[in-house]
Write a structure and sequence with these properties.
The complex is a heterodimer.
Chain A lengths: L20 E2 L12 E5 L8 E5 L6 E6 L4 H17 L4 E6 L9 H10 L5 E4 L4 H5 L4 E2 L1 E5 L5 E6 L4 H13 L2
Parallel strand pairs in A: 4-5, 5-6
Antiparallel strand pairs in A: 1-7, 2-3, 2-6, 4-8, 8-9
Chain B lengths: L40 E4 L4 E4 L6 E7 L6 H18 L6 E7 L7 H10 L17 H11 L4 E4 L8 E4 L2 E5 L5 E6 L5 H11 L1
Parallel strand pairs in B: 3-4
Antiparallel strand pairs in B: 1-2, 3-7, 5-6, 7-8
Classes of the chains: A alpha+beta, B alpha+beta.
Chain lengths: 174, 202
Amino acid sequence: MNRRQLLAGFAGAAGTAGGLWIAMNGLSSDGALPVRIETIDAPGSPAGEMRVPTPGEVTVIDLFATWCAPCETQMDRLTAVHREFGDRVRFVSVTNERLGETLTRDDLREWWQQHDGNWSLGLDPESQLMGALNAGGIPFHAVATPDGAITWTERGLTSEDTLRTAIQRAIDHE
Amino acid sequence: MGFAGCLGGGNPNTVLGEPDREFDSEDVPYPAWGEQVPAVTVPDPIAGESVSTRDVDDISLYTFFFSHCKTVCPVLIGTLRNIQTQAANDGYADSVLFLPMTFDPARDDGARLEEYAGEMNVSLDLGNWTFLRPETEARARTVIGETFGIRFEKDPMEDAEGYMFIHAAVILLVNEDGYVERAYRGQSPDQTAIIDDLAAVR
């Protein structure tokens, strides 16, 4: 410990006042995509496994957590966009929260139902997907082309229009 | 200094070797690898008891937060919460103690902290999670700012909540003997690394 530094170099902490909910995990991992994740049984989401992004499909990836208030607002926007693109584009929402006594599968399913989720719901307890996408915050969104290339990412609340444009570009990319 | 001791850069008080970093522990304001946890006694407002840091004989994870924070604090608390769940799922819940300390005693009383635990899916029933609340803001400044060296400043924002704190984001892993094994600095702590370090220290 160095007392003299107590009052120095404070600027480094200023970023914490920003409006963004910062991701829970490290940014150093550069694990390769796609990442295999477990999906849970919930509306629009069969239990099983999937690769994210999904090879051969345009994939919209949403990283969220149940404690993240902006992620709730984001669900409304995702729902609207899913209504338009859900028939030709794969949507997946993924949380890195670990499931256990205080957040069970049922709790997560309930959150999903409350927010009208109707697409794949996945788990990333080791934060592999978060790391591979270099997600510095949640909500975080990414769009991938069918060949797996990430063509767009955005941190923080994302508007429907921005999502639409990003998805359309990935579709046109085919 | 970095190569003090013997091969591997060991420290007689820590299980983990010196972390790969560009500075020495004495260069940073907060307690870092190989340093003893600062000696303070801070109330636990939920149990109505006090915790003396040097008397804790469990492996501990400290962080510093306030419950009205919307930015980095949910990340720090969420990270500890994920580790708490991992510990419960893997059967080592009794081997680790979580000690998050608030900058904001005015708003973070016992009732608010219990509510916050609920919001963040923290288990208070496991008995390994103890919120620490310095008695007053002045005491928080002494304990957290000066003794722990975690810089924070009150930001009198004109919003619904009234004010915020700008603060350094730090998680400390302290071993059973009260020495810091790791000080994780930054807004995106790597919980997998913390879990691995915890496994090595246990």
